[in-house]
Amino acid sequence: MDKDRIKGAAKQAVGSVKETAGKVTGDTKLQAEGTTEKTAGHAQKTVGSVKDKVRDA
After folding, report:
1. Which of 42, 45, 41 has the alpha carbon at shortest distance from 2?
2. Which of 22, 26, 44, 47 is positioned for an S-S bond with 8, CB 3.0–4.6 A?
3. Per-residue pLDDT tens for 32-51?
4. Dihedral sign from CA coordinates of 23, 27, 28, 31
5. Which residues, including other chains, have CB under 8 Å from residue 6's CB and lie 6 or more apart?
């Protein structure tokens, strides 16, 4: 498993927590930050998946 997949999944989780915290507290800046981090984590996780497929091929 590529390290980007692991880091991406972690970043996604942190982003989800921030996004939810922002929604609960009404902090739109924190919510937007969480959404951005979650999206970046998803992209990084996808890159890791592609690396794994290339390595396995």
Report:
1. 45
2. 44
3. 999 999 999 999 999 999 99
4. negative
5. 48
Name which of 8, 4, 7, 12 is nearest 35 in CA terms.
12
Q: Are 33 and 20 in contact (CB under 8 A)?
A: no
CA distance linking residue 10 with residue 37, whole number of Å: 10
Its pTM stands at 0.85
d(CA 21, CA 7): 21
For 5, half-sphere exposure in the C-beta direction (CA atoms, 13 angstrom radius) is 8
Query: Cα 36 from chain centroid?
Result: 8
